[in-house]
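Assemble and predict.
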Amino acid sequence: MRERKKARTRAAIQEQALRLFREQGYGNTTVEQIAAAAEISPSTFFRYFPTKEAVVLDDAFDPFPVEAFRAQPASASPIQALRHAMRSTFAQLPAEEAAAQRERDALIRSVPELRARMLDRFGRSIQLLAELVAERTGRRADDSAVRTLAGAVIGVGIAAWFSAPDQSPPDFVAALDEGLAQLESGLRL
Amino acid sequence: MRERKKARTRAAIQEQALRLFREQGYGNTTVEQIAAAAEISPSTFFRYFPTKEAVVLDDAFDPFPVEAFRAQPASASPIQALRHAMRSTFAQLPAEEAAAQRERDALIRSVPELRARMLDRFGRSIQLLAELVAERTGRRADDSAVRTLAGAVIGVGIAAWFSAPDQSPPDFVAALDEGLAQLESGLRL
DNA sequence: CAGCTTCTTGACAGTCACTGCCGTTTGACA
DNA sequence: TGTCAAACGGCAGTGACTGTCAAGAAGCTG
């Protein structure tokens, strides 16, 4: 039952931090303020999160659903498999969490340090996707065709993530799905 | 001729910094050490570079050559235009500078903070490329097909950049060109 | 050449993220 | 209830960065 308390503390820190970031901005909020709002000491803050950035980025969302991707039938192309995996994963996300997700994404996009870290995650997911595609096709992960496919797919994902707020509907998942469909059917321009 | 001295100071800082990073690592090198090696005060360091990271990233290389891209004939497809622009730009890069570039890239890839910032530049270049493609095709930069194309192209660039050291030849430009060729002819996997 | 201005620099003090240590408290468990 | 490890707060220290101020160097003017 120690676990329970730790989970509650962690959630409290994240909640208070995001509230303060919303109210007074990321850069104007100190770790000390977050700790005070969450009723812990600054030392304890760093026991729960390695950096101030992590409070926003941790659990932001998994680069993408590895298991759901692996579960797709072998007959599906890599892009089709990913589209299905994304849809089935995000379909069951509660509307409330989705809204929180969007707000957090907006914060990340607007703060350069956070955005850079987020893009680093996208970058790592190129590697991850390359390995999954390699599994699926029997090729090697460092095969240039595999690498190109993984890069293009994640690149489309990044572009969708960037433009999420501008568009109607402002939905990352929908934008990504549309982009992947275009990528699959060939880029005609 | 004040300009001349400033340029020399700036080059000295960058040179000493990269030397120290090579010898003892990025994280183990302080700005104070860099300043001492370049025979300036720490204050002056920050007058030339806004952050320690900037000493590595500034002038690392332009996301890509805007002018060369614009100069391509309207008959070329966006991907073809970019391939030609990249080739003509990098063809005339002296071998010595290319080697320095590769070393700097290796440093950036190996240090998370630097890598994240670099990827943020790639991310911004999606926006830039989308605008250039919009010019070229008469579509809008927020058109979803334009955005997808820009994302896929830069994604292939990121993937090439990541795998640059692993492959033979370890040449970013060649890997990018190959990836774009694959993207252009359709991703068959 | 002398005087004025402007640019550049170094010194200093201060903030804040983050690290490491140490003594105390607290909760689990015998 | 006593014991032990986990969790905590406090504190000192480092290092990146900011802002300010006064001294020195470089350029221009009369």
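The mean pLDDT of chain A is 92.
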